[in-house]
Amino acid sequence: MTNLSKFYQKTWQQRLQALIDQKIISDQQRKILQCSASDPELGDQQIENYLTHYNLPEGLALHYLINGKRYLIPMVTEEPSVIAASSHGAAIIEKSGGFTTKVSGHLLWGQIVFEKVSQPEKLKKNLEEQQEKLILIANQAHPSLQKRGGGARHLRVRILAADLVSLDLAIDTQEAMGANMVNSMLEAVANYLGTQISAPVLLSVLSNLADESLAQASCRIPVEFLTRPQLAGQQVAEKIAVASRLAQLDPYRAATHNKGIMNGVDAVAIAMGNDWRAIESAAHAFAVKSGSYRGLSQWQLNSDNSILEGKITLPLPVAVVGGSIKIVPLVQLNQQLAKINSATQLAEIIASVGLAQNLAALQALVSEGIQQGHMRLQLRATILAAGAQPNEVATILKQMQQMKKTDLTTAQSLLAKKHE
Length: 420
Ligand code: NDP
Hints:
Elements: H1 12-21, H2 27-36, H3 40-46, E1 58-66, E2 69-76, H4 82-95, E3 100-103, E4 107-114, H5 120-129, H6 131-141, H7 143-147, E5 151-161, E6 164-172, H8 179-194, E7 201-206, E8 214-222, H9 233-249, H10 251-271, H11 276-287, E9 297-301, E10 307-315, H12 329-337, H13 343-366, H14 370-385, H15 393-403, H16 408-419
Helix pairs in contact: 4-13, 6-8, 9-10, 9-13, 10-11, 10-13, 14-15, 15-16
The protein binds NADPH dihydro-nicotinamide-adenine-dinucleotide phosphate.
């Protein structure tokens, strides 16, 4: 049986040695872990049982014109077509005048949930009457946030079932995402309420449904800018509008529509050191808020059918400080590349990226199909997976394109022939 006892107490080198001693990895594999470990000291500070850094490629998306200002946008993704599609969508929107954005707030909800409630209406009234006091207690638990202009703003009480009541506190987290700050503020309020309310507190924690941190991006595209080799711009625009309607009607399509949006959203969130799991869960919870899961963006033609109007609304609990943002040098560099200095600005950028990503995907889908562009980029990954060295990719790629083949077996046999 494997013995990795007190693994967390070992140094990084000891941990790697323990894996070798237990015959879990070879000496050769230790070298892979060591080479990939770009900053073991930092990694050891960031997480438990650190082994190595898992690296993802980072690239720059271009052509972003947001509220009249140009941006270079670092994106981290392993999916081949994401950055190309992002820049392509942004270029069409740039020609059309760029993105307009609106950020409606940066509040995070925190929940204190009471169980075994016997009189939910009475508890609701009691909590609502104490709003001022509860907000004071929350703010006293993290006074620096209030000093920066943030803090607890208001509360609401929701009766979830005959025995379950949720007290929700809306907290302005300023430039931070706020999960830790909100959790400690909630704890203080829960402790206070524990002394005066008979129903026990089941849990107190932030909600990731960040619907008080909404960012909207919109654009207006003259239909001629959507022209594809086989299809007039007018037809492309009409088909995009129908595809958009489809994503409002059919959750099977909406899931894919939104995945395409999140391709861009996550890539920027990761580059900016943000918690992309929180952004993902917020986006999907928001997408289903009406009761059925819907697309997060909408496209429609204007009254004379000359302009395609696009709009996206995303809950974006994003940050420029907090978590690991200030301790990862690459995140600092990425903030500088994108010239970002506020959470609002980051939300504006991410919403715009989501819309551009969606436009590029829909334009391809309703015209030549997504595979053509996708596969050109995916083919490189397939050839590398077949065992090619980077300097062999171009030759094999050309041969495969001539043969109109995209599969791994063909790549492997061409490579084998080359090595004969
Ligand atoms: P932190 O705990 O790092 O708190 C934010 C920090 O930023 C504080 O130390 C604060 O200083 C500092 N700060 C400096 N300038 C500002 C400013 N202008 N506005 C606001 N804060 C400022 O992070 P968060 O509370 O933001 O929590 C985010 C982390 O929590 C992420 O790593 C996330 O992954 C994780 N998390 C997420 C959960 C979820 O999503 N469900 C659950 C639990 C954790 P000061 O202390 O002086 O106020």
